[in-house]
Write a structure and sequence with these properties.
alpha/beta; Protocatechuate 4,5-dioxygenase, Chain B; six-stranded mixed β-sheet; two-stranded parallel sheet; 7 helices; about 30% helix; globular
Length: about 260
């Protein structure tokens, strides 16, 4: 079975689905990947400890407001992922108990990008909660999940490399990036190009902070993907860059 990469992607709000540039980038990226047997995704929009897992067949979570009605009617019914949930639970040590939800489906940090990447909804998808904002714990979590890649599982951390929504003043999709957004983006790009985990982990003192991330849950899924990489300190491929609403959509593929 082909070993899958680990990804960190910017997931966007539901209107991402109508953005031809970004959706085209995500779609082309998915076509270039080996076909996954299943997907394990960690989204910024589910912060919960202990580690929690979504329920197969549960309705989508429409965790957003103020958008067109059509987005609240969308579905993304994927095949059963309970076997992957059992596998993940078995991989966790006793110090990391796992809670299996019985009614929580995928939130928009998972289903919005996956509708673009795998529009036929024919790959089992399991969502895992983000149990901490500690980079070292998330790196260890990703490391525990690493063997899944050799079983054909695509591991995705879904967030946004800058996410200072309260500080945006221009809401056009092609708005210029504010200084705090471009400063943080370039800082991260350089650290990622070096594979510099120490610098990336020290993000609270990065240029553009705290405006780039007034809360950090859109950045920290990066560390799950980095931990799942074969060699976390090796540079990954920065597949997507640029800005959307002035926020960095930089996304990464790790071998």
């Amino acid at each position: 079975m082909t070993s899958m990469p680990a990804l960190y992607i910017g997931h966007g709000a539901p209107p991402l689905l109508d953005d031809p540039t970004w959706s085209g980038q995500l779609s082309a990226w998915a076509r270039d990947l080996p076909r996954p047997s299943a997907i394990l995704i960690v989204s910024a929009h589910w912060e919960s400890a202990p580690v929690s897992l979504s329920a197969s067949g549960a309705p989508l979570v429409y965790d957003f407001g103020g958008f067109a009605p059509k987005y609240y009617e969308m579905t993304y019914a994927t095949p059963d992922a309970s076997a992957l949930a059992q596998r993940v639970a078995a991989m966790m040590p006793r110090t990391e108990p796992v809670h299996q939800h019985t009614s929580r489906g995928l939130d928009h940090g998972a289903w919005v990008p996956l509708k673009v990447m795998y529009p036929d909804a024919d790959v089992p998808v399991l969502q895992m909660s983000l149990p901490t904002d500690d980079p070292q714990r998330l790196l260890r979590l990703g490391e525990r999940l690493r063997p899944l890649r050799d079983e054909g599982v695509l591991i995705i951390g879904s967030g946004f490399l800058t996410h200072g929504l309260p500080f945006l003043t221009d809401w056009r999709t092609d708005a210029a990036a504010p200084g705090w957004s471009s400063d943080f983006d370039l800082w991260a790009a350089e650290a990622l190009a070096r594979g510099d985990l120490d610098t990336l982990s020290d993000f609270r003192f990065a240029p553009g902070m705290p405006y780039a991330h007034p809360t950090v849950e859109h950045y920290t899924p990066l560390f799950v993907a980095l931990g799942a990489a074969t060699t976390p300190g090796e540079p990954g491929a920065q597949v997507i860059d640029g800005y959307w609403l002035g926020l960095s959509k930089r996304s990464l593929q790790l071998a």
